[in-house]
């Protein structure tokens, strides 16, 4: 310890007293006289300032103050010496001292006058605040961070009552600090999550680590907020638990983005299944089979892709007054298979009649059906898509059904149904095209056979008959002549039978479509055979039934009827041929081997036929064939 410096006013008793006081001080301490000279210092002070034992005595106290603060320190010291008072530690003064090596450190100084001399000595007790200042700064930074954080940073006591509430928590949950501090943390949890929150806090109190989790907390206005919650235990310097901290981050946007991402993923997966189903259906259709093979697959995929409880495909029946369910998938509509639905009194009929999508929230299927599925479940939301084709109007409708209580079909599902409806319509088109191809192939084959019979068999029979008639001139035997005459008659009967067979072959080609143009023309020719005395020959070229629109069929029938009637009445023909061709134009050609145009009695009928052709942008010509007979050609353009 440094002893008090000697002086005129310092006695031995004073020195001993000062030494005792300094030695008993629990903190670093120095005694300074009125001139600012250190007269005594304890070992703690020597260690604090980095001096060896006994070296502080006699030094000017200003040397322990940083150079930048010395002028001000000298002034404060003089003022204090003039009016000495006791000043305790922690007087809110930011003071700095300097060690022997020149390093500065913060100190807290307690001053007290010692009345043992005149002027009195000053006792200065010093504490190094380096560590405490670091703690203060760290605490201040933490407070600043908590106060300025956008996240909610709150704390609770171990019993779960709030002890702090930062501004970020108010922004997140709407409560002011005074509304929650002192209240249990369960106040901000929805009823369904309060037990879970208590369990989490119990795990923290038990020292168990918890991962950050996503939860929903209750806003002051009552709505729930998506937050990420991080919960941890607060311990004091001794390591004892004193509370729980919670960091809550608003994840509303993240949750919204996650929901949107999930929606997009679901939509992408649905589109992928959609494309896959379309490809599958197209491959099946192109692979052969009939519409009865394709429709069950289409209804099954409709139910899967549109999340429907049932799907049906309805086709219009021949009388045009009802729709027949030709395919049904799903227990909800299993009993509708082969049912007929009224076109006048059903959602399906409304879609068929209007050619537009029909969306309804009930299962009103029609007067001839019930609105319940096989298991008794009531049919709820329904969508009917008309199947529109390019050349045959609307052959039917596609229906999708959900049970009562389920949500209606959303726009994306409806767009998917419309797409599958187009595919179903394509199936009807393809089925019709297959029928046309088969019919054309059958007609072509039967026409070939008929031509062969006519061009070869009948001609040969004619030749044999003529040869027999020619040979009869040279036979005088009456019995032989009679036998030859009978043979010729038999040949004529055979020719008639062959001609009937030719007609039968051509007629059978149209049996699958009894109301087609082909069948009507053949029917007319068959009726005209009685007046003509023979069966007219009829030929078709091209897709007659699929290319000729219904409103043009009446004109074709009128042309055939008028020309066969005129031939029977006036031509005295032994042969007449009707040829109808459908390509870019529709051409009707009627040729006979009669006496040709000799009078004008047919002028009014022909004028009517010419008017029909010209009204459709076509022409009609009448003339002979190599100077004999008559050929009438009626020609009009076909619609694209």
Briefly characterize the structure:
With 640 residues, the chain is α+β, with helices and mostly antiparallel strands. Helix content is 44%, strand content 22%. The chain has four domains: 12-131, 2-Layer Sandwich (Beta-Lactamase); 149-250, Beta-Lactamase, CATH 3.30.450.20; 273-408, Beta-Lactamase (2-Layer Sandwich); 516-640, Heat Shock Protein 90 (2-Layer Sandwich), CATH 3.30.565.
Description:
By secondary structure, the protein is an alpha+beta fold. It has four domains: 12-131, PAS domain (Beta-Lactamase, 2-Layer Sandwich); 149-250, PAS domain (Beta-Lactamase); 273-408, Beta-Lactamase (2-Layer Sandwich), CATH 3.30.450; 516-640, Heat Shock Protein 90, CATH 3.30.565.10. Helix content is 44%, strand content 22%. The strands form four sheets. A six-stranded antiparallel sheet has the order 13-12-11-16-15-14, sandwiched between helices. A five-stranded antiparallel sheet has the order 2-1-5-4-3. Helix 8 runs antiparallel to helix 9 and helix 13 (517-532) packs parallel to helix 15. The longest helix has 61 residues, at 411-471. The termini are far apart. Mean pLDDT is 81; it is low at 366-377.
